[in-house]
Design a protein that fits this description.
heterodimer; A: alpha+beta; 7-stranded mixed beta sheet; 19 helices; B: alpha/beta; Gyrase A, domain 2; Four Helix Bundle (Hemerythrin (Met), subunit A); 3 domains; 6-stranded mixed beta sheet; 17% strand
């Protein structure tokens, strides 16, 4: 028999990459199968990493030893912090990527990883023996053997691309779909549905007039994603903003029925939060214009990505409506916008580890679970990779809770609520978003990651040192009172420095100067204490909340149980619970269609003491 | 058998000789176990649901013990949502005992307190608020409370609270739109609008709290405290109001050493009378001094205070803790009879004689007036009727106040949003949309057997 691997990862996108790297990091052997090594780490849609809530996820991936943050730091061409008008908890880093550089660099990371064997094949099916997965069938090789298999097929399962009434089989334009694997999963009896997403046109930079658009520069200085990147010294490029107008909308309205979306060609459900321009025009008739961000696809390409106008209109209509937009009158389209429809698996069949409950050893991650976005995919890949490796090693699974990480929120949402439309992360999905910040991801996750062996001692030491200094500084500020002759501030003399820091127009630098505490301190330490001060009290409240609901959240439910035997549950609720098999009351309470009355029934059924 | 699914039974009527005694049997075996003690032309297991059958109650040998009525309610169209049989028999305690014993021999378990209603809740027949309203309806002491509990039972409170939650969700939606779509749908937060919306909501919540406090006060009975120096005739007044000799009275000052409470209905108002040890500063014995201390403590919990003196005491002699109590005070001068009658008693003091019943009717009218002031309002509509619900609403109010404050101070959207979300959660806990185990236990522990 041929060599058997500990973990087989199928699919070379952002989920697959993190899965392979994480598993290898834990010391198990990894076979990484991709349809084409040239497309490893491709960014199929927008040329950016991060963004609202997603930026937090990237930081979390970094703190769990993942590659995404370091990779964008190395290949990003513009860095910005979003939401700076709001509080630090909802601020998120975002960067424009050089797509080719991003993919190229990550490929070399994979190739240089001693634990990963990279091979090209198109997987057609799974090999399952005695109900357990033990390998995959390739197109070129009969069989690849492995103890665990992580599938990250992205949009490739029965992928169909739509431009107007034209339909091309594929996962991306010019690339083959993975119909065989899609069929195999369906035949395994996995519950599957169809989703749709879309991407806008790319235009030739030389044919657009950026002088008539609003310029958007990166932050100065640019701030890295990774806690492991010391500083960024790059030459940043600019993005541009322009708008659709009434004329644009008229062209679109006149051709609405020619869009694949409305012609009946597409049955999959698209994301409400990232609608095509046809959708926007149709659903918001009162809006006179929609924003378009014009973003470079890379440093050395003239292709520009038109963020905000994804479409599945015919090629000539795309050209016509773009030409109505200021600055795009002469734009030449290099790649047309298209919609992609693909199969996905209803994620309720997954455990918190992303393992398919009924097929031990099989893990699913990324868009196949109904999510959208590189970051959401990478996070799942990472968690699947970690857990597959831990399973092989016979170690405890690694699960993050909703109050610990956005990744915890993401996976919990997927397995309890499912994804009726492509799932995108929002800060409002996290009950404890004041705690789940981009700035404190290191504090939240690095100790956990170090305990498992996902990050090295140096990283942990640095984080511990940072928060030791922060605590020290915080203690000083809480203890010392203000004593100044400064006429603007002297009326606050006697007030504790930490309290002053909470004031809106006071920042850390001014305070330290005012108080004469001039010892040199690291920027991240100062920032961390400043944020703690701004949220002081609110954080305490969030922690109290967690404690309050913890008992119910963690009240366990049986993992093998027939809920139809529980009287008082509606048959729909019993059916749902049998399907989802939630591991705790808290998880059950988040399953859509499970009512509070059903939860009461469960509480009474599983926890009731005599004589209530 | 699992306690959740077994068949349970209990008499619904109080034990004692009466015209009728009603027994409810609920659960899978309700019909089969009832048919063994009820004989009728139509066997119970083939009887139509919701029809009254006439037949015999029989003993184990088949001898007739009583002629009775039986009604079958088939699941899910019954009070508990399970199969239910209700037997109406003549009100003999012995007969009821015999039937309950026979049911137990058949494996039917005596229902726990509140168990019928708990099953109704578990089976989705009643919402949490409705289940609580059952307890309130049963214990309602006044017509006003009865109609309020009935309104809750009809689901009106659920509707009202959902309305409030919806409004909060709406505000949350707008705040989060601006947080989560910073660049895509640029929507500046209109703080003034948001502040106004929260304040409008707060006004409504304030009203709910005020109505609820009145209703709960009425439900618990208004605490009417009678205070005064020793031998003023406080215990006599209590006996006179009650219409019977509840408290021992004597000529010796300080006869009442502890306090004595007694419920009392006055013109549709439910009051609890509290007679106390006489107040005096010096000379009291140890045990009496403790009673005085208690009286002081009680005044903090009173809803209404009568302060009583006699004509031979200077009228200014009112202790400061009484004068400062934030409740209506009624000042009376007792023993305005016989030789002291000519003494002029200035307003607001009411000259009174418990002995000759002078001005007793006036005092009662005054008490009723104060009581209705304290409990009126809110109409007959649904209000929060218990402390659990009210506590959540008060917490919601405080969270929303903090939201307004934070918004005014220019706090970030996510902080304001956090307060509002927590506020909405409190409302959901009232309706049971957010379930916490302790809450359920607490709620169902309030029921007495058979309800």
């Amino acid at each position: 028999m041929a060599k058997s691997y500990d973990v087989i990862v199928v699919g070379g996108g952002h989920a697959g990459i993190e899965a392979a790297l994480a598993a290898s990091r834990l010391g198990v052997s990894v076979l990484f199968l991709t349809m084409n090594p040239d497309t490893l780490g491709m960014m199929s849609c927008n040329p950016a990493i991060g963004g609202l809530a997603k930026g937090q996820i990237v930081r979390e991936i970094d703190c769990l030893g993942g590659a995404m943050a370091l990779n964008i730091d190395a290949t990003g061409i513009q860095f910005r912090m979003l939401n700076t008008a709001k509080g630090p908890a909802v601020q998120s880093p975002r960067a424009q990527a050089d797509k080719m550089a991003y993919a190229g660099r990550i490929r070399s990371v994979i190739e240089n990883d001693a634990g990963i064997t990279l091979a090209m094949d198109t997987v057609k099916g799974l090999i399952i023996k005695n109900g357990k997965v033990c390998g995959v069938q390739g197109s070129y090789e009969e069989a690849y053997w492995g103890h665990t298999v992580i599938l990250t097929p992205g949009t490739f399962l029965k992928g169909r691309l739509h431009i107007g009434d034209r339909v091309f089989p594929g996962g991306r334009l010019s690339e083959h779909p993975a119909d065989g694997l899609g069929k195999a999963l369906f035949e395994l009896g996995l519950p599957m549905g169809r989703l749709k997403t879309g991407t806008p046109a790319r235009v030739d930079r030389r044919t657009i007039d950026i002088s008539r658009m609003e310029k958007q520069e990166g932050d100065d200085p640019p701030r890295p994603f990774s806690f492991r990147t010391k500083a960024l010294t790059i030459d940043q490029v600019a993005c541009y903003k322009t708008h659709t107008n009434e004329k644009t909308h008229e062209v679109i309205r006149n051709n609405m029925e020619r869009s694949a979306l409305f012609s009946g060609n597409i049955t999959g459900i698209g994301p409400r939060y990232c609608p095509s321009i046809e959708d926007k025009v149709k659903k918001f008739p009162e809006r006179e214009s929609h924003l378009i961000f014009v973003e470079p696809e890379g440093r050395y390409t003239s292709e520009m990505y038109l963020n905000g106008v994804s479409s599945s209109l015919p090629a000539e209509v795309q050209e016509e409506f773009l030409h109505t937009v200021q600055g795009l009158e002469q734009a030449r389209i290099v790649r047309y916008a298209y919609a992609v429809e693909y199969d996905y698996v209803f994620p309720y069949i997954l455990r918190e580890t992303l393992e398919v409950r009924d097929i031990p050893g099989l893990y699913l991650a990324g868009q196949v679970n109904g999510t959208s976005g590189y970051e959401e995919a990478a996070a799942q890949g990472l968690m699947a990779g970690i857990n597959a490796a831990l399973q092989v090693l016979g170690r405890e699974p690694f699960v993050l809770k909703r109050d610990e990480a956005y990744i915890g929120v993401l996976i919990d949402d997927l397995i309890t609520k499912g994804a009726d439309e492509p799932y995108r992360m929002f800060t409002s999905r996290a009950e404890y978003r004041l705690l789940l910040r981009a700035d404190n991801a290191d504090r939240r996750l690095v100790p956990k990651a170090a305990a498992i062996g996902l990050v090295d001692r140096t990283f942990l030491n640095r984080v511990e040192e940072k928060y030791r200094c922060s605590s020290e500084l915080e203690a000083t500020l809480r203890q010392e009172a203000l004593r100044t002759d400064d006429p603007q501030w002297s009326r606050f003399n006697g007030k504790k420095l930490f309290e002053l820091l909470k004031m809106k127009d006071m920042d850390m630098d001014s305070l330290l100067e005012l108080a004469g505490l001039n010892a040199p301190r690291k920027r991240d330490v100062l920032e961390s204490v400043a944020i703690e001060a701004k949220y002081d009290g609110y954080i305490a409240r969030a922690l109290a909340d967690i404690k309050r609901f913890k008992k119910m959240e963690e009240m366990p439910l049986p993992q093998a149980f027939d809920y139809t035997s529980v009287k008082g549950l509606t048959s729909e609720a019993a059916e749902k619970l049998n399907k989802y098999l939630p591991s705790s009351i808290g998880m059950a309470s988040r399953i859509s269609g499970i009512s509070p009355a059903d939860i009461s029934v469960l509480i009474i059924r599983f926890t009731r003491k005599e004589g209530l | 058998m699992n306690r959740e699914y077994d068949t349970i039974a209990a008499p619904l009527t109080l034990r004692g000789e009466a015209a009728v005694s009603l027994i409810r049997i609920s659960g899978e075996d309700a019909i089969s176990s009832a048919s063994e003690l009820f004989r009728c032309r139509t066997p119970l297991d083939s009887a139509p649901s919701h029809h009254v059958l006439f037949g015999d109650i029989v003993d184990s040998q088949g001898h007739c013990l009583d002629r009775a009525l039986a009604t079958v309610f088939k699941a899910p169209s019954s009070y508990t949502g399970e199969d239910v049989v209700e037997l109406s028999l003549h009100g003999s305690p012995l007969l009821t005992d015999i039937i309950m014993n026979r049911l137990q021999e058949k494996g039917v378990r005596m229902a726990d307190p509140g168990e019928f209603t708990r099953r109704a809740f578990v089976n989705g027949k009643l919402t949490l608020l409705e289940a609580e309203a059952v307890a309130d309806l049963i214990s309602a002491k006044t017509p006003a409370l009865l109609s309020k509990a009935a309104a809750v039972l009809k689901g009106e409170l659920d509707k009202k609270l959902h309305g409030l939650t919806r409004r909060l969700t709406h505000i949350l939606g707008r705040l989060n739109l601006s947080i989560d779509f910073d660049e895509e749908y640029i929507a500046d937060t209109h703080w003034a609008d948001i502040e106004k919306e929260i304040k409008d909501l707060l006004t409504d919540i304030e009203q709910e709290i005020a109505d609820s406090q009145k209703a709960i006060r009425e439900k618990n009975g208004l605490h009417l405290l009678i205070l005064g120096p020793p031998n003023a005739g406080k215990s006599s007044l209590m006996n006179a109001l009650l219409g019977h000799e509840r408290v021992l009275v004597s000529e010796t000052p300080g006869t009442t050493r502890d306090y004595v409470t007694e419920p009392f209905l006055l013109e549709g108002h439910y009051l609890t009378l509290i007679d106390t040890a006489g107040l005096r500063d010096a000379g009291a014995m140890e045990i009496e001094r403790k009673g005085i201390e208690k009286a002081r403590a009680l005044s903090g919990k009173a809803d209404l205070i009568i302060y009583m003196l006699t004509p031979d005491t200077p009228l200014i002699d009112v202790p400061s803790f009484v004068r400062e109590a934030e409740v209506p005070l009624i000042f009376v001068v007792n023993k305005c009879d016989g030789i002291n009658e000519e003494k002029v008693v200035p307003s607001p003091w009411i000259p009174l004689s418990v002995h000759t019943e002078k001005n007793m009717e006036e005092l009662k009218t005054r008490l009723a007036l104060e009581a209705s002031r304290l409990t009126s309002g809110g109409g007959s509509g649904a209000v929060l009727l218990n402390r659990r619900q009210l506590d959540h609403l008060i917490r919601a109010r405080s969270l929303l106040k903090q939201a307004v404050e934070a918004a005014r101070e220019g706090a970030f959207e996510e902080i304001v949003s956090d307060f509002i979300r927590s506020g909405a959660e409190e409302l959901e806990m009232i309706t049971g949309n957010r379930v916490v185990e302790e809450m359920l236990n607490h709620i169902f522990s309030r029921f007495c057997i058979g309800k």
